[in-house]
Amino acid sequence: MTRRTTKNTKNFYLQWVSKLVLLRFRSLRTIKSTLRCGSRKTNLTPSLQRNFGSVLGILFLFLFLNQSVLALDLEETNYFASLKANTTNVRSGPGSNYPIKFTYNMRYLPVRVVAKYDNWHEIEDFEGERGWVNQNLLSGRRTVMVRTAKTYINMYSAATSRSRILLKLENKVVGKLIGCKKEWCKIEVNNKKGWIEKIDVWAA
Question: Which CATH architecture has domain 144-202?
Fold first, then answer.
């Protein structure tokens, strides 16, 4: 498996350090400087010297973070899962401190897990949108979603279009995946089990 670095995490720490530096500069109460001919010399008050020492400490912390914490190694993956809860908040980075990017309101919605960091997983939905969720929000239950340009697709009693039609499924209907063989997948929808063509679903 390959590894890559997330830019979201870098941006978070850069913003955090920048805010700390800005706050320290705002706390500077006095600035006393004199300019001399031929050379520039700045005389700093003891208060200003202490504040600049704090700023330098923050900048040192920034350099340390830039070399270590900011370079998060992500384990790239590629497998399907589903959402465990009826409502799932998806964040912009691997942690609860990252802002919510969007929210899903469907239980067992199929997703592709594309990366891991600690106990956070980056997921991708059927439209290619990506974000981060805690691993506790994912279920190992396999589901599929109908993705078709047709008005509906047929669910058959056997893995052939010559068999009896059990249900007509509209686009974006989600069903439990039982298994696939060749060009057909067996699913369960509304407590009925049947076969659909693999080309008409996502996450099989």
Answer: Roll (2.30)
Total residue length of the chain: 204
For 73, 107, 192, the CA distances from 90, given in Å and listed in that order, are 20, 14, 31
Against a cut of 0.70, is the pTM above it?
no
Q: Give me the CATH topology for the region 73-141.
A: SH3 type barrels. (2.30.30)
- Domain edges within the chain: 3-67, 73-141, 144-202
DSSP 135-192: GGGEE---EEEE--SSS-EEEESSSSTTS-EEEEE-TT-EEEEEEEETTEEEEEETTE
Say whether pLDDT at 6 is over 80.
no
